[in-house]
Amino acid sequence: MSRSKKTIYILAAVCAVNLAFIWGHSLFSGEASNAESSRILRFILSLFRVDATPELFSLLHKILRKCAHFTEFACLGALSAAITYYFTGRDISRAWTAVSLPMLFCLLAAATDETIQIYTGRTNSVFDILLDFCGSLVAIAIFFIVVLIRRNKEHTDSEAPADGE
Fold first, then answer.
1. Contact 26, 117 (CB under 8 A)
2. Which of 10, 93, 103, 164 is most buried (CB neighbours < 10 A)?
3. Helix extents (H) in the chain
4. How many other C-beta atoms lie within 10 A of the C-beta of residue 16?
């Protein structure tokens, strides 16, 4: 098996685990999900020795939950971009495929995530779909910007005259 195929399989496995984590948390009830977020927030506040008022705690709780959505889907976006990149043979000339497939995958994953919440008694939100998708878009963009910068640097380094010439 080639190194590229191994890379794709590893990335696909990590991507599947990421997606299982996202969708698994959508299966939690509203109370369980809020309790988990509250525990994490209390831990973070204790690290910084912050004693938050109920109003501040509520605001930070909402921010933490939105940041978690964004971050989970940023990971999914980066992983799906990497899979597509390696699957296309690292051929950046297929840029539309390399970018559009991860975008579509992440958008469908975000819509599915919110749909799952309907069946667990939680509210679903178009805003959350957009937030999730934005997290994916940011990571996909960063991934391909880094690829282009590295390629440009490799190209520039290969054209540089060797020492002593």
1. yes
2. 103
3. 3-26, 30-47, 54-87, 95-118, 126-159
4. 11
Q: pLDDT of 113-150, one tens digit each?
A: 999 999 998 888 999 999 999 999 999 999 999 998 98
Distance CA 146, CA 133 (A): 20
Amino acid at 68: A
Q: What is the DSSP letter of 92?
A: G
* The model scores a pTM over 0.85: yes
* DSSP state letter for 124: -
Rg over alpha carbons for the chain, rounded to the nearest Å, is 20
Q: Which SS3 state, helix, strand or coil, does residue 79 take?
A: helix
CA–CA distance, 46 with 40 (Å, rounded to integer): 10
Q: What is the residue type of 72?
A: E
**C-alpha 57 chain-centroid distance:** 26
